[in-house]
Design brief:
Residues 36-77 form a coiled coil. This protein has 107 residues and is mainly α. Helix content is 60%, strand content 7%. The chain has a two-stranded antiparallel sheet with strand order 1-2. The longest helix is centred in the C-terminal third of the chain and has 60 residues, at 47-106. The protein starts with 7 loop residues before the first strand and ends with a helix.
């Protein structure tokens, strides 16, 4: 195995990476003290595909922001509705108290 999981290559020292007679090792041994990641450029990835992928990421972020705003708006609307309901109940309670007070005063 030339490169390990994640593209890592292991060696006993940095100078060993440049040794032309050495075969890269993807398995870490107890004597290994250094590692480096060997990136292999994918030939099938083009600039257009990279742009498309970036656009998709931006679209996902934009959709998440829209959803977040929709949720916030819905929460605000729910709070306003609850406030209206509580205000109505409060006003009815005040009216009931006023009526009760007038009844008591009339006696």
């Amino acid at each position: 195995q030339v490169f390990g999981e994640g593209g890592w290559e292991y060696a006993t020292g940095r100078e060993r990476f440049e040794d032309p007679g050495r075969v890269p090792r993807g398995v870490c041994r107890l004597s290994d003290t250094v590692r480096r990641r060997r990136w292999v450029r994918r030939v099938d990835v083009t600039r257009e595909e990279a742009k498309k992928e970036e656009k998709e990421k931006k679209d996902v972020r934009r959709k998440l922001m829209q959803l977040r705003k929709m949720l916030e708006a819905k929460e605000i609307e729910t709070l306003k509705k609850e406030h209206r309901q509580l205000s109505t109940v409060f006003e009815e309670t005040i009216e009931d108290l006023a009526t009760s007070t007038r009844s008591i005063q009339a006696c």
